[in-house]
Design brief:
Helix content is 14%, strand content 25%. The chain is α+β, with helices and mostly antiparallel strands. It has a 6-stranded mixed β-sheet with strand order 4-3-2-1-6-5.
Length: 139
C-alpha cells in the first residue's frame, strides 16, 4: 500500500504522539491530578466522557476523597470548568473541597444514568457550566 503524501510514518522524527502544547491524548489525561485554586490536590482524573455527535469532551470523571478506597466518591466535572496549569502539571478548578463535597457524585462502581438529561443538567447546573443537554423538552 502506498503511503499518503504528507502522512506521518510511525516512529518518524520528533512528532509528539501523546501531547503537544495544545492537544493531549485522552489516555494520557487519566491519572492527571486536579487541584483547587489554592493548589491543594482534590483528586485525579479517572476518565473522560465524550459527546458522540460533536466529539467534544463533556465531562472529566474525577475520583475524590476516601482512604484506601473507603468513602471515595466519583465526580463528573464539566470539561469547561477545568483549566490546565502547566507549572503544576494538572488541572485547576475554581472551587474548594467543601463545595466538592456537595457536588453531584456517585460511588466507585456505581455509574449514573448518563442517558438522563436530568442527571446531566444537574451536574452542569451545579457547576454553572453550559449544558450539552440542550433546553428542557428538546431532543
Amino acid at each position: 500500500m502506498a503511503e499518503m503524501e504528507g502522512a506521518v510514518t510511525p516512529g518518524a522524527g520528533d512528532v509528539a504522539r501523546e501531547e503537544t502544547p495544545q492537544l493531549i491524548a485522552a489516555g494520557k489525561v487519566a491519572g492527571t491530578p486536579v487541584f483547587d485554586r489554592a493548589g491543594e490536590r482534590l483528586g485525579t482524573i479517572e476518565d473522560l466522557m465524550l459527546d458522540k455527535q460533536s466529539g467534544r469532551v463533556a465531562y472529566a470523571v474525577m475520583r475524590f476523597g476516601g482512604f484506601l478506597g473507603i468513602g471515595e466518591r466519583v465526580h463528573p466535572l464539566p470539561w469547561s470548568v477545568l483549566r490546565y496549569d502547566v507549572p503544576i502539571g494538572g488541572y485547576v478548578v475554581e472551587l474548594d473541597s467543601d463545595r466538592l463535597q456537595g457536588a453531584p457524585a456517585y460511588g466507585p462502581g456505581d455509574a449514573p444514568d448518563w442517558t438522563s438529561r436530568d442527571w446531566g443538567r444537574s451536574v452542569d447546573d451545579y457547576w454553572g457550566a453550559r449544558s450539552i443537554w440542550g433546553a428542557p423538552g428538546s431532543s
